[in-house]
Design brief:
It is built from 20 helices and 31 strands. With 653 residues, it is α/β, with parallel strands linked by helices. The protein is globular.
Length: 653
């Protein structure tokens, strides 16, 4: 229970900050209109799931969700999951909500590792979306068509998405570091009519030319009519080398206004993809209204985002956090985009950007925070970080030691918000509470309107502190509207509802805490079962991260003599040897701080750890290689070559 029972918070907001929070204003408004009084956040959360229709209507009103036609019913069939319907009869346009501000305030600031900087005001963004939407209409794009992006994280990606969704087309994107097969596995399932792409990009000081890949994609993506290319690497790309291509400058039209399509609340706007490490990626379809409502709630109530904020998330266009970040436009904030390596030309790059751009909310994957900690760089010694109010972390569980690092090496007075959800819901189940304290190693709170519980294998809810399956017991607006090419909903049902009837099983192994927060111990499909006892992989990672000689690790369960034995693979710091003394110290730290059952049977040195493109460790792929099983869809990995280090590893015979 040591991970769940820190008695004192590591940080708390001051009285002025609590009083000024959007969440406080929202709560006060609800109390005035309902006559209720909420003693604390837990009471507000309880009301939000007991009265879901009223809660989500209040969110829509508070966050200024723009409807063309108001709904007849906020929630119909609330006892069905899937099957519930939200804001029935309502009509809106996703892009119109993100473009409702048209003033001279900055909408987008773009930076890259080469020092390039671009700034677009809300007025300029609207005009650029208008001419591109005109070009799409002239190319025959209509509501329901798919428009795709194969681009760096740059303003053109945002403009193309907004132009497509303004018409009612469905947007889907991959980052340009995806190989040809990874792109084809995704886009050939949805058959986009138009593909927007950059001629190349820079990463880690290297120049990567995308034109050869685009030439192949032009020949192999089914149903593709045009590839619209914009210069990102060179001024004049060789357009004639790519079949069906044309420059962005020639594709755009001339319209000065946008004819926003008025569409149903659940009209599809995004196709997202599962990680695909166990097969071809599933195509998850998300609706306009549910996505927008969830993001507005998470931005304004949980992140305390306002018009004066500048929000940054280190992401690519292939990770759901890009979609989440871009929705910040609906609040009128400035979104900050960065493309390139976060360590080029050094670990201080992004933190200097915080100072130079006045960033107030800084988001990243947990792996990045671990990496800068291991680099021994201390941002607070090199940067002022005066504007920085919150740091958000996601992608994988954030270790308690990383909480310590943030408060000692980055900034003492900052809200550290470890958040968790996923592509599946295009949002969060657990995230930040701007009025509440931060406890070491915990996600602060369950999301408002999200009926999260922890279930045992037999389908019963577990009490605080007991580990089990993270579930959601009630519908929420950002549930997928379906999976692509799944007319009977069989893939959709199998993904979330097969384990418990009418209950969303998310696939995380977690526990609720006494503070109303959450601790995630890893993916439930990667949990370890030595002797039949379930152990979350994150429970071991948290202890190994205390060993200075180790810079990365992955742990799996290997089938062995009719049971499971724990195998720990470690990447060692340069100049370190995995000798008997180090192995004994690793085992002692794990035994003393977790339990004897957590101690690995084998500890093996490897040069690299395979991860997805969003930085998640792929325990299942490693386990498959170790056990001689096939790993499907290698293209989902950022470094698939690393798997070879685990095949027939000499220490496992």
């Amino acid at each position: 229970m040591s991970d769940l029972s820190d008695l004192q918070p590591i940080w708390s907001p001051n009285k002025a900050r609590r009083a000024a929070a959007n969440l406080r204003q929202f709560q006060s408004g609800v109390e005035t209109r309902t006559g209720l009084t909420f003693a604390d956040y837990s009471a507000l959360h309880r009301w939000s799931i007991e009265c879901p229709a009223l809660f989500w209507a209040e969110v829509a009103d508070f966050c200024d969700l723009q409807f063309d036609v108001e709904c007849t019913d906020v929630l119909v069939d609330a006892d069905r999951m899937p099957g519930a319907s939200w804001f029935v009869g309502a009509q809106l346009n996703f892009a119109a909500n993100l473009l409702k501000f048209r003033d001279e305030r900055p909408a987008i600031i773009f930076r890259d590792e080469n020092g390039r900087r671009t700034e677009l005001s809300y007025a300029e963004l609207y005009q650029q979306v208008a001419v591109l939407a005109d070009g799409l209409r002239r190319a025959g794009v209509v509501a329901g068509d798919r428009v795709a992006g194969f681009t760096p994280n740059c303003p053109q990606a945002v403009i193309a998405m907004l132009a497509a969704t303004s018409i009612g087309a469905i947007w889907s994107s991959c980052s340009p570091d995806f190989g040809v097969n990874g792109v084809l596995d995704r886009f050939n399932q949805i058959q986009p009519k138009i593909l927007f792409a950059a001629d190349g990009y820079h990463y880690g000081g290297k120049r990567i030319d995308c034109m050869p890949i685009l030439a192949e994609l032009g020949q192999r993506i089914d149903g593709l009519e045009h590839i619209v290319i914009f210069p990102f690497l060179v001024d004049t790309p060789a357009f004639d080398s790519v079949f069906g291509s044309m420059p962005w400058s020639e594709f755009v039209g001339s319209a000065q206004d946008i004819d926003f399509a008025s569409l149903p609340f659940a009209h599809p706007i995004y196709v997202m993809y599962s990680s695909g490490t166990t097969g071809k990626p599933k195509c998850i379809v998300h609706g306009a209204g549910g996505t927008l409502l969830q993001h507005l709630k998470e931005h304004q109530l949980h992140s305390d985002l306002g018009r004066d904020d500048r929000i940054f998330f280190f992401t690519t266009c292939g990770w759901m956090m890009w979609n989440w970040l871009v929705s910040g436009l609906a609040t009128g904030a400035t979104i900050v985009l960065y493309d390139g390596s976060p360590f080029e030309p050094g670990p201080g790059l992004l933190w200097r950007m915080v100072d130079e751009e006045g960033i107030t909310i800084f988001g990243t994957g947990a792996k990045y925070l671990t990496s800068i900690e291991q680099s021994e760089f201390k941002p607070r010694e090199q940067c002022s970080l005066d504007t920085l109010r919150a740091i958000q972390s996601t992608g994988s569980p954030l270790a308690p030691t990383s909480f310590d690092y943030v408060y000692t090496a980055i900034k003492a007075d900052v809200a550290l918000q470890s958040i968790a959800g996923g592509t599946d819901l295009l949002g969060c189940f657990a995230l930040g509470n701007p009025m509440g304290p931060v406890y070491r190693g915990e996600l602060q709170c369950l999301g408002l309107g999200m009926a999260v519980a922890i279930y045992a294998d037999d389908g019963y809810a577990l009490p605080i502190g007991e580990k089990g399956e993270l579930v959601c017991t009630q519908p929420f607006p950002s549930m997928p509207v379906g999976f692509w090419n799944d007319p009977q909903g069989e893939k959709y049902h199998a993904a979330y509802f097969e384990r418990y009837a009418n209950i969303w099983a998310h696939g995380d192994y977690a526990a609720l805490t006494e503070h109303g927060g959450l601790v995630i111990y890893g993916r439930s499909d990667a949990t370890l079962n030595p002797g039949g006892v379930r152990i979350g992989t994150a429970e071991i990672y948290r202890q190994v991260e205390k060993v200075n000689e180790i810079i990365d690790c992955v742990v799996i369960g290997q089938s062995w003599q009719d049971d499971t034995r724990i195998i720990l693979f470690v990447v060692l710091r340069a100049g370190t040897e995995l000798d008997q003394l180090l192995c004994e110290r690793i085992r002692k730290i794990i035994r003393d701080n977790a339990s004897p059952r957590h101690v690995p049977a084998r500890i093996c040195a490897v040069p690299d750890i395979p991860r997805t493109r969003s930085g998640k460790i792929v325990e299942l792929a490693v386990r498959a290689v170790v056990q001689g099983e096939p790993v499907r869809n290698i293209e989902a990995l950022a470094n698939p070559e690393a798997l070879e280090f685990y095949r027939d590893h000499p220490d496992l015979h």
